[in-house]
Structure formats: structure tokens, C-alpha cells
Design a protein that fits this description.
By secondary structure, the protein is α/β, with parallel strands linked by helices. The protein contains eight helices and seven strands.
Amino acid sequence: MANLFDLSGKTAIVTGSSRGIGKAIAHRLAEHGANVVVSSRKMDACAEAVSEINEAVGRKAAVAIAANIADKAALQTLVDETHRTFGDIHILVCNAASNPYFGPMGGMTDDQFTKILHNNIISSHWLVQMVAPEMRQRKDGAIILISSIGGLKGSPVIGAYNISKAADMQMARNLAQEFGPDNVRVNTIAPGLVKTDFAKALWDNPSILKTYTEQSCLKRIGQPDEIAGMAVFLASPAGAFATGQTYVIDGGQTAI
């Protein structure tokens, strides 16, 4: 059974992985044998996460390569440096995202809306364009887009973010059809509310937190590590027949 989740010899890029869900995913991928590139905007935060991961897994599994997802050239450097460090890229996890506005969409500026769409959709498209050709040529690869259950429902306060997360789901479906004949799988993970710094505006608000917990089967919000297992599944032989899907991990919130 352990071999189903063996990622030995594989290399993964995980964006937004200096903290939160991204760091948990990077940690678990490394734990299952992968070499992992930890990436976010700030090098010191990346280096700290790398040190933590390597100490936990007992080997030099992770390296830090800082990159701003809004900068296409920086993303290309991220890919190039990963090639120089580890060789082929087998796994891409697009986790980094932005949400600079909290409130009704009518109060959002054009710049805020554009930033959300650019960072949450276009940057993932860029990275896929950069790594998919080698995956397709090799006939092996796994691309995972971190979405949100927000992409399945409306919201009066994070509407533009939810639009971008719905786009993740459609991107996965489109790319799964394009890449499937070359054995490159593309899937989306849609977490519910998870206790991360990114989602603090939601879980740190007692009223919003109460609504989320009351409307979930487990009556609590998630932890970053509770999302990481699905990423390991989708990246490993265990998920070899899974593509074009959105996997909801939300404590049962969408079941009610």
C-alpha cells in the first residue's frame, strides 16, 4: 500500500508554500519522497519553511526559490532554477493566490479585481505553460490547482475571489482534456475554511466563524495539514486515474 503514495525521484514546485496549506503540501510531498521547491515572494520565509521541512523529513528534500506570481519572468526563473537544482519537474501545485479586497463587489476597484484575476488565474496559466510541455513529452505529470469551495457558491464579501476559484475548476477540466492523451493529469482541490493567515478575515470574525462551523458536518474549520493528503494522492500512483476533477475537502460544509 505504501508504494501507491511513493514519490521518490519526483520533483514538485509548490507556490505559496512558505506557510499555510502550501507549506503543509510541500512537507507531505517531501515526506513521501519527492524533492520539493518551496516558493513565495519572500526568500526568508521560504528558507524558514525549507529548514523546517528538511529537519522533519531527515534529508535535504526541499530548497527555497522565491518568486512573485504576478511576474512572468520570475516564474520562468523559478522553473529554470528548479531544472538546474533537481532536473525534470513532475508535479506542479499552484497554491499561491491573492485576495486584496473583502466586501461587496460594488465597492471593489478595478485594480483590486484585476489583481485577483491575474494572480489567481493567469499566473497559474503561465506556470502550466512553462512545465506542461516537458510533462507531456515524458508522458508523465501531475498538475494540482488549489481552489476553494467558494468557487461553488456565492459570497457577499469575497465574490471576486470566488470567481477566480471557479475558474480554477474550469481550467482543470480544460487542461485535463488537452493533456490526458499524454498521461498528464490536472485536478483541483477545493478546501473549505481552513485556519491559515490567508483566511484570517473569515475565521477571526466570530460571527463568520460561527456560521461556517454551524453549517458543516464536523462543526469545525480545517487545519492546513488536512488538505495536504489529497495533494499527495493526486500527485502519486494512487491518483493515476484521477483527472479533470475538483476534490472538495470542507468538513462537510457543502453537504448541508
